[in-house]
Amino acid sequence: MEEREQTNRVIIVDDHALFRRGLKGLLNASGACTVEAEASDGEEFLSLLDTCRADVVLLDIDMPRKDGITAAAEALAMRPGLKIITLSMHGDDDYYFKMVSLGVKGFLLKNSEIDEVITAINTVARGGSFFSQELLQNLVGSLRTSRVPEGEHDTDTLSEREREILLLICQGLSNHEIADKLFISKRTVDKHRANILDKTNCRNTANLVVYAIKNNLVEI
Question: What is the pLDDT of residues 74-91, one digit of tens each?
Answer without folding.
Answer: 999 999 889 999 988 765
